[in-house]
Specification:
By secondary structure, the protein is mainly alpha-helical. It folds into two domains: 178 residues, no CATH class; 80 residues, NusB-like (N-utilizing Substance Protein B Homolog, Chain A), CATH 1.10.940.10. It is built from 15 helices and no strands. Helix 1 packs parallel to helix 11, helix 2 crosses helix 6 and helix 13 packs parallel to helix 15. The longest helix has 41 residues.
């Protein structure tokens, strides 16, 4: 599930936190990284469970209408297409999904129900939802497409939801869009296979090793890389230097040293891209230039040794 770009971001966040709060050991930092990675996996289920909660909210509204003493015509003859959505009913009845959500307390209950009802009311007014409800088609593909539309139009970049997620878990910050894109792939598979295949926390087993090795090497050599950076920046002033840039360059050096199979160009590009979102406007140029310069120097000193076809050498 978690790709290497997101792994690098999560390692960066742990390292950045370590600059100010500090951890007692590398093991404690790795524990925090593991919690962060598991948090993204749990967010995948939590967002999917929001879709189930919307179905339940719609069903409750229908039932309330039927219980009225004098229901309207539409309340007496409700349109049940949404609450019979095949993807949502699949999730609600899938023991793997429900057991995971129960185990990790990923329910939309209590105060969260207000948000669910409000969101369902907004969705009911959308043209794409009304078109779905009025269509005579009943297919897995159409049901799955509706859920994808709700995620894309109502859930992604929803400021109220993002605030809620941040309050619930520090490990869910900035992960919503990434998780939704993973869910999109699961929805596409459901259209043809009529079942959901839930992803593992890491896309590949060696990604787990990559994550924890990158963190440990970055921490163990942090002082060494910090000194290397300071010696190569004119008019160095640690008080004025952007802390995020220091962490990104240091982490980039750790990756270049520790992973001989990853091309230098890939490493530099990754940290330049991360700097665009987590540092200053000018950081991408600075990170690119200094990281490239230091990697060249360490390569000449044989500290960095790249192996394999297509990898940059001194």
């Amino acid at each position: 599930m978690i790709n290497r770009r997101l792994i690098r971001i999560k390692v960066f966040k742990v390292l950045y936190s370590n600059m100010f709060g500090g951890f007692d050991s590398v093991q404690e930092a790795q524990r925090q990284l593991n919690l962060s990675c598991q948090g993204t996996h749990q967010l995948y289920f939590f967002v999917l469970n929001l879709m189930v909660a919307l179905r339940k909210a719609a069903e409750a509204k229908i039932e309330n209408g039927l219980r009225k003493f004098n229901p309207t015509v539409s309340e007496r003859n409700p349109n049940r297409k949404f609450i019979e959505n095949k993807l949502l009913t699949y999730l609600e009845n899938d023991t793997v999904f429900t057991t995971y959500c129960e185990k990790h307390a990923l329910s939309w209950a209590g105060d969260d129900t207000r948000f669910v009802r409000k969101l369902m009311a907004q969705i009911s007014e959308r043209e794409y939802f009304q078109d779905y409800m009025s269509s005579g088609e009943r297919s897995v593909a159409q049901d799955a497409e509706l859920v994808a539309n709700i995620l894309a139009n109502e859930v992604n970049e929803n400021e109220e939801l993002e605030e809620m997620l941040e309050e619930k878990s520090m490990y869910w910050m900035d992960d919503l869009t990434y998780v939704i894109n993973v869910i999109f792939r699961s929805i596409d598979m459901f259209k043809t296979r009529k079942r959901i295949f839930y992803p593992d926390t890491f896309m590949k087993e060696d990604d787990r090793e990559f994550a924890f090795r990158l963190l440990s090497v970055s921490m163990l050599h942090a002082d060494e890389y910090f000194q290397l950076i300071s010696r190569n920046v004119p008019n160095w002033d640690s008080e004025r230097f952007v802390a995020t840039d220091t962490v990104l360059i240091s982490q980039g050096l750790a990756e270049a040293v520790a992973f001989e199979e990853i091309p230098v160009k890939v490493t530099i590009n990754e940290y330049v891209e991360i700097s665009k979102f987590y540092s200053t406007q000018n950081s991408k140029v600075f990170v690119n230039g200094l990281l490239d310069k230091l990697i060249v120097r360490l390569t000449q000193e044989h500290v960095i040794c790249k192996q394999g076809r297509g990898l940059r050498e001194s």
